[in-house]
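P.,

For your records, the input lines for the assembly:
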Amino acid sequence: MAPPSSRRSGFSKKAQYSLFTGYLLAGGAAVVGAGLLAVSLLQPAAFAPLRGVASDVVAPVGTGTAVVRTESQGLFAGIAGYFYAGQQNAALRREMEIARIRLAEADAVRAENLRLKGLLGLREGEANPVAVARLVGSTATSSRRLGFINAGANNGVQPGMPVLSERGVIGRVLETGRNSARVLLLTDSESVLPVRRAKDNIIAFAEGRGDGLLRIRLVNLGVNPLKVGDMMVTSGAGGYYRPGVAVAVIAKITPDGGIARLVAEPAATNFVAVEPVHQPAAIAELADPETQDPAPVATASGAASPGAAASAAVAE
Amino acid sequence: MERLDPRARSDLYGLRINRAPYPWRVRSVPYVSIMLGSLLPVLLIADLMPLVPPLGFIMLLGWRMVRPGLLPLWAGAPLGAFDDLVSGQPFGSAILLWSLAMIGLEIIETRFPWRGFWQDWFTASVLALLYWFAALLVSGAKASPEMMLVAVPQALLSLLLYPITARMVASLDRFRLARARKID
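Structure tokens returned:
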């Protein structure tokens, strides 16, 4: 289709000027956009208040779709359940037998733990969540993996707080609005989380790869002790997460660690708990300009920089 | 006449005598539909990889190609600013890229004033691919090969989406201009 003739300027000065102004405005907007882009790449938190307002508007709608999503998941699971009922019943019976035995063992271990902790004078309870919220949305078009939850500053949520589901770590609060918050999911390629192997104290970093898997990088290089199926849990280094929360299961071994799958997948999650920062004092110490390099990207992207976290791990 | 055929005196937009389109519809429908395109992907949980093509940008392309001259040349900036607020990209990326796309389309249109559907599709595909790649680069994440690989379906979808978008924009345009208001 040819452009309408009203858009050909011809000899009309007015039409020529308005066409020129259009180009000028669009070109100016592109330049301003480039400037804003540079600012927000260097200072990711710069436009957080604006985004907070936008996510506050989106969150109520997202709550509706989140309810529909979880209910439809339940429906499909229910239908699938009919097909596998008998087989599943037998498997569950076997599992329960084993679980009973393990539970008894765990009771013994817990009793011993209590006794030992009493001896050491340590007291470490479950942290009370600041807020329980629904995961209402995510950035499905961008290559950044951010989620939205429908609890914000009004509920006491603050940037840096860990977000956990009943299965394990989901991510960390990046920015807050009044009634909504942005969460940096573990799979984002800017996310770094200090972890350790659940059964011993092999420490590593879990970095998002941007494709749904985590890269586990061991801190101590040497013979790679990881095996497929190993569970990685938070180590508590860095001070944001409490130790011992499930993060990922190793799926593949690489020379410097492994590739791991998430334990808690946000898409399959109904409710999440926002917990307070585990050790705010340590965070304040790390954020001190004397101990950490002041690159704004490292602090604002939400990931404790590896060097700082490693020093915290040593201190622990 | 109406007894023989009730639609005898009407055209694509409805009855012609005594009727007029709503002014608010005439002005707002393109903008609202593009903003809805930006908002829709937010409501899906994509935890592993980018799943949905940039619907807001594709709607913008659709309106620009199907109804040239309707959106002003600078419309990419405010609409892009809105997209940036919800899309997760760093603020400013869509302002820049959408403005550039609008200027680019204007230049292409001056160069090739007579176009057809296939050429429109080709132009939209090239622009969508360029946008996909540029958005990956400026997203603030390190562009690793794995990330590129998982974003390929997104690029393919945005190529295939143009014909549907063009149809959708055309029907939205009929809704926009429908003579629904009765003049007394």
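Two observations worth noting. The first strand of chain A starts at residue 131 and ends at 138. Chain A has a mean pLDDT of 81.

Regards
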